[in-house]
Design brief:
By secondary structure, the chain is of the alpha/beta class. The chain has four domains: 265 residues, beta-sandwich domain of Sec23/24 (Immunoglobulin-like); 67 residues, SH3 type barrels, CATH 2.30.30; 237 residues, Rossmann fold; 128 residues, Severin (3-Layer(aba) Sandwich), CATH 3.40.20.10. Helix content is 28%, strand content 19%. The chain contains 20 helices and 29 strands. The strands form seven sheets. Strands 5, 7, 11, 19, 21, 23 and 24 form a seven-stranded mixed beta sheet that branches. A seven-stranded mixed beta sheet has the order 15-14-13-12-16-17-18, with helices on both faces. Strands 4-6-22-20 form a four-stranded antiparallel beta sheet, covered by helices on one side. Helix 4 packs antiparallel against helix 5 and helix 4 runs parallel beside helix 10. The radius of gyration is 27 Å and the shape is globular. Belongs to the SEC23/SEC24 family. SEC24 subfamily. Pfam families: Gelsolin, Sec23_BS, Sec23_helical, Sec23_trunk, zf-Sec23_Sec24. This is VWFA domain-containing protein.
Amino acid sequence: MAPAVAPSKQAEYNSTIRPVGAGAGPRVDPDQIPSVVTVRELNQKYYATHMYPTMEKLCPPVATTEYCAVDQGSSNPKFGRLTLCSVPASADVLATTHLPLGLVLQPFAKLRPDEQEIPVLDFGDKGPPRCNRCRAYVNPFMQFADGGVKFICNMCQFANTVPGEYYSPVDASGRRIDRDQRPELNWGTVEFAVPKGYWKVTPEPMKYVFAIDVSADAVNKSLPHLTAQAIRRALYGPDGGLPEGCKIAIITYDRTLHFYNLNSKLSQAQMMVVTEVDEGFLPLMDGLFVDPEESRFIIEDLLDRLEVLFEDLKVPEPAFGAVLDVAFQALSATGGKVIVTLSALTTWGPGRLAFRDDPRQYHTEKEKVLFSAENIYYKKWGQKYAEAGVGLDLFVFPSTYVDLASVGMVSELSGGEIFYYPNFVPQRDGKRMIAEMSTVVNREVGYQGQLKVRCSNGLQVSAYYGNFYHPRPASDIDLGTIDEHKSIVVMFKYDGKLDAKLDAHFQSALLYTTKSGQRRIRCHNFVAGVTTQIKEVVKFCDEDALLAIMAKEAVQHMASDLLKDIRAGINDKCVQILASYRKHGATTSTPGQLILPEALKELTVLLLSLLKTKALRGGNVNSDVRVFSMRLLKCMPLDDLSLYLYPRIFGLHNLQEADGYVDESTGQFKMPTYVRASLSRFDEGGAYLIDNGQSCFLWIHRRANPNLLKDLFGPTVDKLEALDPYMNEFPEIDTPLSRQVRNIVTYLQDLRGAKALSIQLARQELDGAEYEVSAMMVEDRNNEAMNYVDYLCHVHKHIQLVNVN
């Protein structure tokens, strides 16, 4: 987590190790070592009253901080963050630091209402001005020369002739006279409406296919009913509704495929059944896709009848592979979005799978096979979806193994997302599922996407990480869809040297079609200084971006390397970075001290947290659970990643009077004081919310005060056993504490990405969810890994060994 202003002073922590047998362990005070909680709170306090200017030489705010950025020519860091805000001039300098040079992009990141909206510019049939050599788009860092007749590309330094229609005179300083009227010359992020030369097909408003599992397992879990509620909320709810021209289709499936004619002229939907799923086809086109407003009566009537239609049939074995085929046939000509529910292992129809999760394979060479698709069928469909501009979001509700590595491959390659609900209980989890599916339909999304990243001479793109299809190393990446909750990592390598007198420039260009059917290019521009000084490189390192790249690189190797080797690689990388700083950047170097750069002082605890994620931790973990965590880490944005690794925790039993309300002096919502992620920090008799951005647990001590329970849950609840184990929200009780807590939960929900906030009860010694809470205490010894203090000492010991050698 980078500081608001990168101080020059390094942090030093005495972690001298006792000799073996000299006592109970390292003499380290846990309160004196770097704290994620402290950094988050200080950073949020600073940005409650300050804006972030994008052209000042500051590291971006901590990823979890709520802040307002001012676009001064370099893009808002919500859209993208470089690992190094001061870029090494050569590969040798970078190699010495052991730091990666990369860019974490979130092209559709959501902006605050008080931030600059992205301008949409139309340059007519010729499109936006571009460099004739490297094809970079016009941006604030291009220089105009020869009286405005030429412009010098900031990427490749090529002198281009300004198109006649774009010409403007310049003043004595070389500044265009019309610069203030040109958004593309002032702001780092702009969108260009593009002419037909940029079209793959004629763009049109987005089409959605809802494919609903109605097999036996799905019906037993009330999934048809809940999915119908989710679709109704997404289309007709108070926060729902699609742009004009968007169309939807509804398919249900078990061993057979059921299509519905939703033509508005009918009295009710007509079902057509396809039984030959190995050779799936569309039995109709007219009436398959309809305007949700024109056919509202027909759609709502079908949604009302969905559960009744299949409640007595209960056919096992959903033919998920066949759904992929027919949904693609429906959307291949136009692109669009597929939203599918799945409740069981696909053992019927094309792409059928076998149960292959064997705990005897864990911790062996065979385990890594479980993390990649068993059947090439799913990889091929993922590639087809991406190339056709179709994305797939998959909602999975397993009672047992479903081979998420295989069935989730289409979502990964097409730019979609997986929503995973193990041990699904409709009473507890149904509300969350409805909210999340509604969010998927209504969030900002583009389809038929292609992403290209350009950089200054001396650098080139070396790799991409995320959810997409990359057909060839030198090609653009294909994105069936991309939404506001996805990030993509771009890695760079040197093919020359950078000039320390010039800045380093990076530009991402995302060509896509909007939900309303407009073809656009979204351009983000980033600039960083260039240096030959190692200390300067480390001083302006962005810890959140560094962590994201290390996480995505680690999970990228899960299908090829043993987990123990991946964990060892993370440890080695941490030691190398800190040992290099100690040798080349520290002003003092006392042997008994652990020297941490200010910009990376929480790196050790955050990497320890990464080692404890379900994707990478030791011990026996179901392969579906590992794969889901792996795919989360691959594409989640920085704020979600930071919380996923180190949750926000606060007590409800000791709230201050101002907590849960807006501070009138700053206009900021007042959150409670956060607690470090260790059970030793919990008060006896206390109640705590633990939120990691994906799940939110309410942990209550077994000896909680009855008055606390009454204030939170009502006068009839005076002991833990009286609580409903399937509760998912706080009841509306007329007490000050209840109002504060409900305000806080509402605020946290507004901060969430695609995942809805649903409370899960974890009563001490009563609920199984207590194990999940314990595993989230990353500063404790758990998940077959050290506690924070021991890990810090372990890293220090190996740094000393590296420097001695």
